[in-house]
Write a structure and sequence with these properties.
7 helices; 6-stranded mixed beta sheet; 7-stranded mixed beta sheet; FAD/NAD(P)-binding domain
């Protein structure tokens, strides 16, 4: 039985691990965080979850539609019955209007990582373990954690990290740097949760705005804290990347009061910085990056242009590439 290490417990890693397990591989997943989820994580509060990362997901490919249907039937996902709107700000003049569409949008229940956790439920997951170095000896991989612990005897390694982190790990492991410029693929985002008692003008507000990308209200999300979550766009987030949470709370309060016309009391909840959030649409998606001779495979949502669905598809394709590679090896023996 082949032994596979998956580094990164986001949706790509979970989809790859689940697919490989179904095919009889022995899989262990590693993540530097305290739990699985990546950008599909929700923050637990006494009042309910806060979706600080992905706000919803859509399903367009047949593979992902089938998986979403399984999640729906298992109660791990549901349809987000949201009212959509568009916030425009040109030359300092704001306008907010309804912008309805027929797109089905889904959320995890009771949190965004619930579907991902369902994929990983029978798979060994080692958390709070930042892999610092990879070592290859006699066609077997050893993973060295920053705490000094080592995990040995893996036949193949899958990296499902953001490109900058994957490149850093490759460099620390004295492996080839496989990205032309890892820093350009993913862009940052500051996400800010704010409490206000006002009735929202829309649950999903898309933004054409010098500062904002998206505003979500969680009133119709099962298991959530009913509040506003603002995602600032990549340009504004990058410009003020190192500003403290107080700066972001102040920015969010001004937008809610002056542009969404909320007169009720507005209270800050959480500000979270995502260093690697949205896809840079000016940079071509690189696809999967593979070194089959060394049994090293790299991919993520960034492989195919961002979005939750592409994270899942990248995981499927990584697993399929490994399975195909081993079949070729068996045929040539």
């Amino acid at each position: 039985m082949k032994k596979i290490a998956v580094i990164g417990a986001g949706l790509t890693g979970a989809a790859a691990a689940a697919t490989l397990m179904e095919q009889g591989y022995q899989v262990t997943v590693f993540d530097k965080g305290r739990s699985a989820g990546g950008r599909m994580s929700s923050k637990r509060t006494e009042q309910g979850y806060l979706d600080m990362g992905a706000q919803y997901f859509t399903a367009r490919s047949e593979e992902f539609k089938q998986q979403v249907q399984l999640w729906l039937e298992a109660g791990k996902a549901g349809v987000w019955a949201c009212n959509t709107a568009l916030l425009c700000n040109e030359d300092g003049h704001s306008s907010l209007k309804n912008s309805t569409d027929d797109q089905a949008r889904f959320i995890g229940i009771p949190s965004m990582q619930s579907p991902l956790n369902a994929l990983l439920q029978d798979i060994p997951l080692i958390t709070s373990c930042r892999i610092q170095k990879l070592e290859l000896s006699q066609k077997r991989w050893t993973l060295v954690c920053e705490t000094g612990l080592s995990y040995t005897d893996f036949d193949a390694v899958l990296l499902t990290l953001p490109p900058v982190q994957a490149q850093q790990l490759l460099k620390q492991s004295r492996l080839p740097e496989l990205f032309h410029d890892a820093t350009t693929l993913l862009e940052p985002c500051w996400a800010v949760a704010m409490q206000a008692d006002a009735s929202p003008a829309g649950d999903a507000i898309f933004c054409q705005h010098p500062k904002l990308r998206f505003i979500s209200h969680q009133q119709h999300k099962t298991g959530r804290n009913s509040c506003y979550i603002l995602h600032f766009n990549a340009a504004f987030s990058a410009e003020h990347l190192h500003k403290p949470p107080e700066f972001w709370f102040a920015e969010a309060r001004v937008i809610l009061s002056e542009e969404l016309k909320i007169q009720q009391n507005i209270e800050p909840l959480v500000a979270h910085r995502w260093l690697y959030a949205s896809q840079n649409d000016q940079v071509p998606a690189p696809g999967l990056i593979t070194l089959p001779d060394q049994q090293l495979w790299i991919g993520g949502d960034w492989s195919y242009g961002g979005r939750v669905e592409n994270a899942y598809l990248a995981g499927l394709k990584l697993a399929q590439a490994i399975i195909h590679n081993y079949k070729l090896q068996q045929e040539t023996v």
